[in-house]
């Protein structure tokens, strides 16, 4: 009880601040740049992919929010996985999230470097990767309050960028700005909506889900709330807002240019406005995307730093990772290991600049979905399931399984699938080496089923 009071006293965020922070952690280059990969696979049907991904993400959020409201835990989903299925899955879940976020950091760094070459074509990717990673470390060093403040400002900027594109899309549809390309129009038949057939649509789902990655911040940061029971409200506002922004902006993008014009080296929104002679737009929007990507990258860096300290508390990592320095109460060694991940990403950007963004994005997306599936299973095990909850778990689980298997059909996405499988295999092997005890079901002590 004393511990719960202490944790409660630490909270200082209002629910809307957590929503804004969640937007900062969710909207990044996975959407602003990675959605181009999804469009190239699915064509206009990418809008349907994002709607399905929103449905699956909603069920994951509900599952996590219910567990958070019932039993707030600093370790969030890794703690719930351990309570539900034992320390092996708690260990594996935590480290899977850590690895997936290191890959996300690499993905964001690569995307930021590609976008920065828009202005500085001759500058190598690794120079930009080094610059952005150094800035990200600086923001994390500011501590929780500094991180929250920076992320809130960047969140407003990235939402404003999407809103600006939606306004321009409306002006284009009503012919209020001149253009040299096709007339704004939506597909009129099934063939036009699904130009690459069902396999293309299937393969695009992983990129739609990846754009929603970050929803788990509601669980990780819920301990910062003044009222822990408001975590579900924060998540619902976040998810509804992000879904509306995503579908509206993508709908306008696919109506302005043919889907074949999109590629993974340029944001779909810059491509969509290329025929409208707005000289300022590519520069302004490219800058906004860089801000969004930096925001998401920094959020991932903060997340892995915080989580590793919690894993150390749970005895799933060496104890020294939870040691904090007096400066902003920072888990120094945890940040140091995350920095090693950043260095790995910079080296990868130097050695493998080709399709690196697509491969890392795919691998990170798959690992995120594995973690989300564990969240659904943990909720099922820990809380008394209702019919609605069971249906939601099944629908969410199948959608995510559908997204993972879909990428296997696309030749360009398979390397990312192989990378994710290699990481999963390594995590499983390490788990069984480190955690040799067999799980024994426990009485639901202190965790009432509802």
UniProtKB/TrEMBL annotation:
Compartment(s) where it occurs, according to its Swiss-Prot or TrEMBL record: Cell membrane
Example of a GO biological process term: transmembrane transport
Membrane-crossing residue ranges in chain numbering: 12-33, 45-65, 98-119, 125-144, 156-177, 201-225, 237-260, 280-309, 330-353, 359-378, 390-409, 415-434
Pfam families the record matches: AA_permease (PF00324)
Domain of life assignment: Bacteria
Coiled coil: none
GO cellular component, one term: plasma membrane
Keyword Transport annotated: yes
Keywords: Amino-acid transport, Membrane, Transmembrane, Transmembrane helix, Transport
Occurrences of domain Amino acid permease/ SLC12A (ranges): 19-381
PROSITE patterns, sorted: PROKAR_LIPOPROTEIN
Record-linked InterPro entries: AA-permease/SLC12A_dom (IPR004841)
Family matches, as Gene3D superfamilies: Amino acid/polyamine transporter I
Topology class, membrane: Multi-pass membrane protein
Major location (coarse): membrane
Alphabetical list of PANTHER family matching this protein: GABA PERMEASE, GAMMA-AMINOBUTYRIC ACID PERMEASE
Name of the protein in its database record: Transporter protein
């Amino acid at each position: 009880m004393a511990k719960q009071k202490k944790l409660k006293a630490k909270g200082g965020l209002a629910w809307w601040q957590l929503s804004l922070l969640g937007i900062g952690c969710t909207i990044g280059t996975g959407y602003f740049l990675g959605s181009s990969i999804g469009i190239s696979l699915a064509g206009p049907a990418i809008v349907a992919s994002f709607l399905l991904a929103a449905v699956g993400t909603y069920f994951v959020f509900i599952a996590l929010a219910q567990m958070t409201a019932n039993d707030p835990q600093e370790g969030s989903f890794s703690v719930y996985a351990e309570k539900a299925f034992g320390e092996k899955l708690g260990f594996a879940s935590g480290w899977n999230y850590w690895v997936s976020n290191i890959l996300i950091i690499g993905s964001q760094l690569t995307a930021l470097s590609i976008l920065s070459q828009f202005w500085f074509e001759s500058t190598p990717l690794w120079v930009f990767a080094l610059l952005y990673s150094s800035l990200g470390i600086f923001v994390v060093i500011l501590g929780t309050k500094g991180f929250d403040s920076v992320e809130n400002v960047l969140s407003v900027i990235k939402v404003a960028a999407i809103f600006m594109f939606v306004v321009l899309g409306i002006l284009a549809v009503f012919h209020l700005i001149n253009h040299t390309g096709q007339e704004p129009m939506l597909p009129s038949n099934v063939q036009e909506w699904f130009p690459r057939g069902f396999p293309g649509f299937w393969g695009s789902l992983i990129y739609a889900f990846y754009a929603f990655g970050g929803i788990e911040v509601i669980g990780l940061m819920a301990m910062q709330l003044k009222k822990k029971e408001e975590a579900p409200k924060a998540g619902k506002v976040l998810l509804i807002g992000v879904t509306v922004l995503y579908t509206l902006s993508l709908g306008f993008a696919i109506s302005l240019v043919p889907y074949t014009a999109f590629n993974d080296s340029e944001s779909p929104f810059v491509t969509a406005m290329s025929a409208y002679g707005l000289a300022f737009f590519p520069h302004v929007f490219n800058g906004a995307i860089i801000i969004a990507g930096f925001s998401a990258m920094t959020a991932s860096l903060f997340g892995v730093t915080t989580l590793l300290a919690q894993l150390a508390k749970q005895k799933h990592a060496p104890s020294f990772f939870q040691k904090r320095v007096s400066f902003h109460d920072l888990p120094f060694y945890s940040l140091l290991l995350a920095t090693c991940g950043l260095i790995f990403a910079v080296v990868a950007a130097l050695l493998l600049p080709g399709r690196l963004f697509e491969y890392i994005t795919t691998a990170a997306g798959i690992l995120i979905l594995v973690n989300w599936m564990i969240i659904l299973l943990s909720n099922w095990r820990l809380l008394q399931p209702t019919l609605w909850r069971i249906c939601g778990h099944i629908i969410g689980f199948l959608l995510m399984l559908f997204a993972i298997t879909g990428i296997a059909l696309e030749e360009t996405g398979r390397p990312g699938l192989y990378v994710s499988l290699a990481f999963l295999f390594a995590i499983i092997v390490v788990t069984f080496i480190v955690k040799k005890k067999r799980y024994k079901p426990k009485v639901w002590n202190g965790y009432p089923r509802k």
